[in-house]
Amino acid sequence: MTPAALQQTATTGPTLTVDVTAVTANVRAIRRLTAGEVMAVVKSDGFGHGLADVARAALAGGATRFGVTSLEEAYALRDAGFTQPVLSWLNPVDSDFGGAARAGVEIAVPGDAHLRAVARQAPGARVHLQLDTGMARDGAPPEQWESLCHTARRAERAGFVRVVGVMGHLACAAEPGHPANGRGRELFDWGVRVALGAGLRPRDRHLAATAATLSDPRTHHSLSRIGAGLVGIDESGSVRLRRALRLTAPLVTVRTVPAGTPVGYGHTWTSPRATRLGLVPVGYADGLPRGAGERALVQVAGVRRPVVGRISMDMTVVDLGPDPAVCPARAGDVVTLFGPGDTGEPTTADWARWVGTLEHEFVTALGRPRLRRVVIGHGVTSHGVTGQGEQAAR
Ligand SMILES: *Cc1c(COP(=O)(O)O)cnc(C)c1O
């Protein structure tokens, strides 16, 4: 293939476009709601949008630091040239904390074992003590908190760690009226008092992620850890954020079929009337949930049309309807599977709803390994393949 032909292929295939200006706008919108700092949580490849692209766009919107759930992600930020503070939580106790500290990465400490490991491997490391504020997931159980704070203070006096933060996390922030939120807030306030009482002076006190930041100022403290909100997901439904993703693909073929034509694996759908079927070269290997057939809609030739039959590994069938005057779609036309919703196209929230999942799950599953990824905004357009963090042009 000539370079021109390659380029042609590249511009007409399935394409996931990431508009990083949405990320910047979202951070700005969130910053207007809180006096605290914004930590951009760019775990899971920036919620499937691209770690470095989301990180850069978040800084442009006023985020001042990063949060990740593995040291690998922290190093990826450093390798990409980001010098801001990075906090990593969820690290196994035998992680390379020495390497983390040398890279200037702050470490969450959910208990004595982590504290000992950090003190041994990375004397002087900056740590955030992590309190379980009601999830029974990550963080020290409240009954171990006092002891953890005192042990940490002793380690700090001996020069083994510096406790720069205290963190908690709310289980039910997406439901602002849920009683667990009040309990979580009180537990966190207690946790901070205990830390201060033990002689610790944590400058960073953080409880809120996106939903709590948007819906409850009492959770704000000195900083918010924002992940979903970066990419336009607001579970609390209280603020209008902007989605950054658009997935498009060409119609490979359009065919006319008679009434009674079964479609796809398992023949789960049969055409009730003569109709036209369009074939879209995107499927569950690209992150579309297989079960979304017959509930999902896509936009083609300006109208919403239903997905029919089961979604296959790399293709999806759309019922274009019998009437070309209503949906004048032809082979080669671009189908929008989702976008920010500006022109009536579905959004990733619609897709998540159609399969009964969270938008977070839907967006983090997208993209590997076939979708071409294009980043737009901030005066750059770059191309690459998702899942590889690659960008061919910059
Ligand atoms: C993922 C995560 C966040 C970010 O949460 P969002 O709701 O996506 O903003 C914050 N804190 C912790 C501990 C997390 O694991």
From TrEMBL:
Q: Which EC number(s) are documented for this chain?
A: 5.1.1.1
Q: Which domain of life is it from?
A: Bacteria
Organism encoding this protein: Frankia nepalensis
Q: Which GO terms describe its biological process?
A: D-alanine biosynthetic process; peptidoglycan biosynthetic process
Reactions the enzyme catalyzes: L-alanine = D-alanine
Q: What does the protein in this record do?
A: Catalyzes the interconversion of L-alanine and D-alanine. May also act on other amino acids.
What sequence ranges are listed for the domain Alanine racemase C-terminal?
244-376
Q: What is this protein called?
A: Alanine racemase
The active site annotation covers: 43 (proton acceptor), 265 (proton acceptor)
Q: Which UniProt keywords apply?
A: Isomerase, Pyridoxal phosphate
Biological or metabolic pathway of the protein: Amino-acid biosynthesis; D-alanine biosynthesis; D-alanine from L-alanine: step 1/1
| Alphabetical list of HAMAP family matching this protein | Ala_racemase (MF_01201)
Residues annotated as signal peptide: none
GO cellular component terms, A-Z:
cytosol
Family designation = Belongs to the alanine racemase family.
User: Which residues are listed for substrate binding in this entry?
Assistant: 137, 313
Q: Which residues carry this modification: N6-(pyridoxal phosphate)lysine?
A: 43
Top-level EC class: isomerase
**Record NCBIfam families:** alr (TIGR00492)
MF (Gene Ontology): alanine racemase activity; pyridoxal phosphate binding
**InterPro entries registered for this protein in UniProt:** Ala_racemase, Ala_racemase/Decarboxylase_C, Ala_racemase_C, Ala_racemase_N, PLP-binding_barrel
Q: Which Pfam families match?
A: Ala_racemase_C, Ala_racemase_N
Cofactor(s) of this protein: pyridoxal 5'-phosphate
Its gene name is: alr
Annotated PANTHER family: ALANINE RACEMASE, ALANINE RACEMASE, CATABOLIC-RELATED
